[in-house]
Specification:
By secondary structure, this protein is α/β, with parallel strands linked by helices. Helices cover 46% and strands 13% of the residues.
């Protein structure tokens, strides 16, 4: 089974730190479906955590059910990142992950995220500082990165062994470059080169283009990686982990939940957001996520529009009830464009 240093996971399937999406309620929904070995928080600003920013504290919120939990920090200053790691240690982190993969300008312009791939020496110093800060507690440090900044300049395969030398216990590789963002096809070959470069010293976790259960064993076979991290694919199918884990362990992926069960999962998610945050937060989130959550339904534009235009949470619940009763069906609507999700995902 996949181990991150001293932390042994129940499965080798991980929920990615999906910026803007991976709140406590969503992590809980994924865990309740089964198959999740580790779930990660949204990206966390160490400065925000240390200042006690309400936004940062909300993003880092966890509970006893939400374990094991990886808290992902982003930044470029080793001392501040070390302080942020100690905060995470004191607030329930099972694992602390360093973001070296975010392609978004507001992060890279401050030398964080995937900009660290342009300065491997700084990346190693930063990782060493975080490892040292957490060493007395035994909390392991991992990193998530892309293949490199641009095509033809692979960095991950040379950086990963250096990170292992300073105590990083695992690396997750998103098989695209920064310049690709979320376009094109993930490079299994690029991930495989990182696996070969670390030569078994630490596990490599593959990430990118995991949409169906079959994609998981395909990633494992093609790359030789020891685990798979799922991001965007979970937004429309939080049960993907359970189905993929069944496929890996029994050879059979059970069918996805039916419409009624999917609606009830959405309803539970909505109510958890109200409980964890507020009605205002829940309403905003369900409006923005409904295209993803209903992506696998037959044409149901009226249903999606009813949720998007709902003035309050009770109206969203009513839309759920109407859909289950056979209403709000039909119409056509294009899928969620990659450009939309690319603007909101930071990892």
């Amino acid at each position: 089974m996949l181990a991150l240093g001293p932390v042994r996971l129940a499965t080798n399937l991980l929920l990615a730190p999906i910026a803007g999406y991976c709140d406590l309620a969503f992590r809980t929904i994924c865990r309740e479906q089964g198959g999740v070995g580790l779930a990660c928080t949204d990206l966390l600003s160490p400065q925000g955590l240390l200042r006690g920013s309400a936004t940062s504290l909300d993003l880092a919120k966890t509970n006893d059910f939400d374990k094991p939990i990886g808290m992902q920090l982003y930044g470029a200053d080793p001392a501040i990142m070390a302080d942020g790691a100690r905060w995470a240690r004191d607030h329930g982190a099972t694992v602390v992950d360093i973001n070296m993969g975010c392609p978004v300008d507001k992060v890279t312009k401050k030398d964080g995220g995937s900009k660290l791939l342009c300065d491997p020496d700084r990346a190693v110093r930063l990782a060493a500082a975080v490892v040292e800060a957490l060493a007395p507690s035994g909390i392991p440090v991992t990193t998530k990165m892309r293949l490199g900044w641009s095509e033809g300049q692979p960095v991950a395969e040379t950086l990963a062994p250096r990170l292992a030398e300073v105590g990083v216990v695992a690396v997750t590789i998103h098989g695209r470059t920064t310049e690709q963002r979320f376009s094109g096809v993930v490079s299994h070959e690029g991930i495989r080169r990182v696996v070969q470069a670390v030569a078994g010293r630490i596990p490599v976790i593959g990430n990118g283009d995991i949409r169906e259960p079959d994609d998981v064993p395909a990633m494992l076979r093609a790359t030789g990686c020891q685990g798979v991290m799922i991001g965007r694919g979970a937004l429309s199918a939080p049960w993907l982990f359970s189905r993929a884990w069944s496929l890996l362990t029994t050879g059979v992926a059970p069918p996805p939940p039916g419409e009624t069960e999917q609606i009830e999962i959405m309803r539970r998610y909505l109510r958890m957001m109200v409980h964890n945050q507020s009605e205002r937060y829940a309403l905003h989130q369900i409006r923005s996520r409904i295209s993803w959550m209903a992506k696998r339904f037959p044409p149901c534009k009226p249903f999606k529009e009813a949720v998007r235009l709902a003035p309050d949470v009770a109206s969203v619940e009513s839309a759920f009830d109407q859909f289950l009763a056979g209403g709000l069906r039909g119409g056509t609507e294009p899928g969620v464009p990659n450009a939309v999700i690319a603007q909101s995902l930071l990892s």
